[in-house]
Amino acid sequence: MTQDLKTADLKTGGAQGYLRIATEEAFATQEQVDAYLRMIRDGEADLGLVSLWGFYAQSPSERAVQIMERLLDLGERRIADMDATGIDKAILALTSPGVQPLTNLEEAKAIAARANDTLAQACTRYPDRFIGLGTVAPQDPEWSAREIHRGAKELGFKGIQINSHTQGRYLDEDVFDPIFRALVEVGQPLYIHPQTPPDAMIGPMLEAGLDGAIFGFGVETGMHLLRLITIGIFDRYPDLQIIVGHMGEALPYWLYRLDFMHQAGVRSQRYARMKPLKKTIAEYLRSNVLVTNSGMAWEPAIKFCQEVMGEDRVMYAMDYPYQYVADEVRAMDTMDMSAQTKKKFFQTNAERWFKL
Ligand code: 1DF
Ligand code: MN
């Protein structure tokens, strides 16, 4: 990880004309990490969990050690890191894949609920720095729906994060409908965050070292969102907003082809699942999808997304602690972009969509 130490010029407080609100920021709990390690040891983990958490929780490398320390801190160390890079507010979520790989349902729900309590306490301790997104256990959709209500009403959360597939299953299955219904009831967005692809998909990626954040994360998460769009999730729930990171997990770049081929597929009735929708995929991206630039501090991609999806739908994220790089904040500050658009990117879009 390229990390520089000359951070004195980055300040919080908004002197540059906007606050910096980072929207895809991660924390972990020790019992979450311990559960992953136990599953890896007992041979219960899928290939992706072994690759991802076998690395972060066990490697002595500087990257893994630093990231573990930062993930487990919801106190002064995190605040100091935010101060050092000029991050005014962090929207925090339990790191990927949350409790979704856990096969013991009671354990999964208990770890998720305690993570939510821990996060809510941290947000109470630092009310103008931390904002919470809840975590759920999609393995139990009805419990998850109740936890969404608890998060919104009792814990002050502003949405939830689900880490893509749950043991190879995707949210477009009818059984997960209670989760979407609850989100619409509380009027909050769903952040679909990547995790490693399921065993049915990961093979050729793992073989080449491409299963993680470098590529597998994005491909699998982009597919997940596309599955939801093509099943008609936004015809069922027109007010639902779904957020994805990493500049839209490549879907904006593919959009022309996605729409051309989707319409060809619908007309030809080639797939029973591919039914006519009320809008085009491009139109759903402009009415129901939000993107963040987590992991993509890259001006051309940001401007492309603003053009394709509208400048109200593109938000800033750092992806702390996985991509804690002060120079990326500077690169975003100095983008060639109107002051008004930059303020939307860093601050007001997040305030609007997370209802801060
Ligand atoms: C990584 C990247 C891991 C992201 C993450 O969570 C994550 C990584 C486990 O680099 O291994 O959230 N990310 O969003 O880019
Ligand atoms: Mn992330």
From TrEMBL:
Could you confirm whether the keyword Lyase appears in this record?
A: yes
Give the coiled coil ranges. none
**Where in the numbering of this chain does the Amidohydrolase-related domain appear?**
99-356
Q: Name one Pfam family in it.
A: Amidohydro_2
Source organism, top-level taxon:
Bacteria
Entry's InterPro entries? ACMSD, Amidohydro-rel, Metal_Hydrolase
Keywords of this entry: Lyase
Q: What is this protein's name? A: Amidohydrolase family protein
* Organism in which the protein naturally occurs: Novosphingobium pokkalii
